[in-house]
């Protein structure tokens, strides 16, 4: 009689094991339900709360509503700096160039004053004129006859006296020097068939003096003859028969372009 009872116990256990899958099924259904509830909640955004969150984050990062953040460099760009005439970078570059231009004007002015003082001491102040432009400082030797014999490249005693004062000054600075000869359109005669030869010959003589007598490094010097192509006065004026000694600015084009405007404010 005991054996059948054991058999009934086994049958009951088998029936009980067949029903355990329902518990796992209910757990899975519950998890899926929770997941869909979360997804639904995430898809419904409270605009007011989101705006408060955005404003809070903006305040925390030091920005204000409507500002733009350049995440590429991690730099905060204020809205009022966008769209103005000249960006912050451009203004910074301009200010740096302006400082260099002011310094260049001061340096060229110091060279001019040093030459002028030497000429005044020797009673030669009226022999030259000075001009500061974006190119640099121009020391103009006024009237070719004052410095050269007629239709000749041989320098006069007065020319040698003037150049003797100019030479040590320009030899002591790092700038390059361009000596530029000019002539009037009347034409030359003798051994110089055109004004090109005459003007370039006179410029060359001045350069040779600077290098051979004044100590100017030859790699810093150049001689140019313009003939009568660049008159500074009426065609037949003696002012066109001139030699210009140009102390060239060594600044960049962007810096030199600011020099005329700055000179106009002085």
TrEMBL record:
The chain crosses the membrane at residues 21-42. CDD domains: OmpA_C-like. The keyword DNA damage does not apply. SUPFAM superfamilies: OmpA-like. Keywords: Cell membrane, Membrane, Transmembrane, Transmembrane helix. It is a single-pass membrane protein. Belongs to the MotB family. This is Chemotaxis protein MotB. It comes from Glaciibacter psychrotolerans. The lineage of its organism: Bacteria, Bacillati, Actinomycetota, Actinomycetes, Micrococcales.
